[in-house]
Write a structure and sequence with these properties.
Two copies of one chain form a homodimer. Chain A is mainly alpha-helical and 109 residues long. The first copy, chain A, has two domains: 1-78, 434 Repressor (Amino-terminal Domain); 80-109. Chain A has six helices and no strands. The interface between A and B is medium-sized, with 30 and 30 residues. Chain A binds a DNA duplex (30 and 30 nucleotides) through helix 3.
DNA sequence: ATTTTGTGGGCAAAATATGTCCAAATTTTT
DNA sequence: AAAAATTTGGACATATTTTGCCCACAAAAT
């Protein structure tokens, strides 16, 4: 996994490594070529379902791709705000807290 | 700011500290009381516009509230996934990268 | 008993997400 | 240079989600 590629960049790279035209991969993904083009260029964001299909089509670990997917979404939402580092920290605390709560509930159950 | 309150919990706490009924704050926020009830209880997520209005209505730092808002949204999306810590790390790297890119562009400009 | 306060459910409108279609632009091949 | 292949741009439609209201009812307070 190249450093900080977007999903689109990754897909284009893998596609080119396979020497296949966009239309062929689009067909494999059951997607219109025009849409794939937009996704590769970053003009559109892929759906989660499509990201899963991409993992299969390219035989990549789904988990890795979902990490890219989610992180890209967050970064796109936040990069303009001057408080984004704080947001990420608080988000992490919240997740820990929710997780903790669930563990406690499981124990009581 | 209490540790890891949700926005809804914060609003309810502040409202009760003011000793006002839900309907009164809802009116101040230009919002239906039923909707505010749902937000306070965590059954609905507030819009960003509403979060800004809340900051004004309660005279809180808007930035603080937006940090809560964003972090809560992220946590809600991610807490179920077993890779959420990685996502947050990668998101931070992406944001740094985007920021770096913008700085470089500014320099060249 | 009455009034006040908070909640549940259903709904509609607005906003956003998602993908297709088709033509045009660009690139590659002949 | 021309033809074929590939990629892209734009408009559009549909699906989904977001957002808040309305209204009746439940719960709490008076």
């Amino acid at each position: 996994m190249q450093t900080l590629e977007t999903i689109g960049q990754l897909v284009r790279r893998l596609r080119k490594e396979q020497g296949l035209p966009l239309r062929k991969i689009a067909a494999k993904l059951d997607l219109d070529p025009s849409t794939l083009s937009k996704i590769e260029r970053g003009d559109r964001f892929p759906s989660k379902e499509l990201v899963n299909r991409m993992a299969q089509a390219f035989d990549i670990d789904e988990r890795e791709l979902l990490i890219l997917y989610h992180s890209e979404k967050i970064a796109n939402d936040l990069y303009r705000e001057d408080y984004c580092v704080e947001v990420l920290e608080v988000a992490e605390q919240r997740i820990d807290y929710i997780r903790q709560k669930n563990i406690v509930q499981k124990k009581l159950f």
